[in-house]
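Holo prediction. Input below; ligand is pyridoxal-5'-phosphate.
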Amino acid sequence: MTRRKTPEYGFETRMVHAGAQPEPVTGARQTPIFQNTSYVFHDADDAASLFNLQSFGFIYSRLTNPTTAVLEERLASLEGGRGTTCSASGHSAQLLAFFAIMEPGDRFIASNKLYGGSVTQFGKTFQKFGWHCDFVDFDEPDAITNALTPKTKAIFCEALANPGGVVTDIEAAAAIAREAGIPLIVDNTMATPYLCRPIEWGADIVLHSTTKFLSGNGTSMGGAVVDSGLFDWGQNDRFPGLAAPEPAYHGLNFWESFGDMALTMHGHAIGLRDLGPTMAPMNAFQTILGIESLAMRMQRHCENAMKVATFLENHARVAWVRYAGLPSSPYHARAQKYLSGGFGSVFTFGVKGGYEAGLKVVESCCLFSHLANIGDARSLILHPASTTHRQLTTEQRDTAGAGDDVIRLSIGVETPEDLIRDLNEALG
Ligand SMILES: Cc1ncc(COP(=O)(O)O)c(C=O)c1O
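Structure of the complex:
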């Protein structure tokens, strides 16, 4: 289902130009780093109008910053959205999105196949706000419908889930959300808008950890909430944060005042203002630079990942490979529908010999860096059982897809033969 036509310019053109103009005073062509906390008002009326949200401009960089604003417009363009709120990290983008939607006592439904940090944030920390997450298997659409309650305010999934090569049926989840009158929120970190644009498949809000492929060099933490602008926050009385008078703004109703920019305005004027997880201007700048080469990098990430996954699938010491690009993946057909231009860079494989064998492979690699990140130009390797999931029991690790034999790879843009040689030697 196509709900929004992509804008006039092609993806690569918007990747380089969207949201940016030469700087008007100096003519600087690249977006400058506005390393400013605050901006001079023209006069008292200008200040009052900015503070009342009657005019748009810059007051204080906790809320808005000119460098970050370019990144926000660029991401909205690439995702086919209406507006973006950038934040200090992917996790804070999740906080901002839910903060606009949820009240204490509310619930949301999330896929049980998510990045582990999101499972902890949703399942444990969000409970302190009185928000409850129901985790269900999104491969069973009935499970989503059965989990709906009058208190359910959103449905959340990852387009391409970290790390197991799981591809979500976004259209099916969007249909359930639409029927229930609640938004579908999709974390598009792993796919990036180059491979998948969830709004075109019915998503209402798209989230990113810009820390990963968007910045692309492992230098800059960041997050983004991209709003489609298509969700009707006033269709029922379930979203008072957006469609009821806001006491923190003299009774302003974001939905009535800003329409399709309601969530984006709320993200800045309430979310960033009062919770404070602002993206640093330097990180916005680094991410703008990263996005300029997103298409070329993603093509190379995907080509390399396919070569490495195929090599591993045929290796005698490898028990299994989970990569949506391989015909052996149960998600291969779905990946062909939702992903265009490749199947992503991150996947897992199982090494024969369990825990000790997994540890040995990770320690024996020379080119792959042993660390807990994805989406770097460099290839990365992780043995979850001995690192991110080491506090869990064997049974808990197996359920989380982090069994003793599991190794996660984030394939970079290096020469693929070098990556294959490194893994071959490490496998012994
Ligand atoms: C899919 C996904 N979403 C969200 C996050 C959280 O992002 P950040 O680390 O920028 O807070 C991560 C981090 O690994 C991730 O992989």
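The chain is about 40% helix and 15% strand. That is the main takeaway for now.
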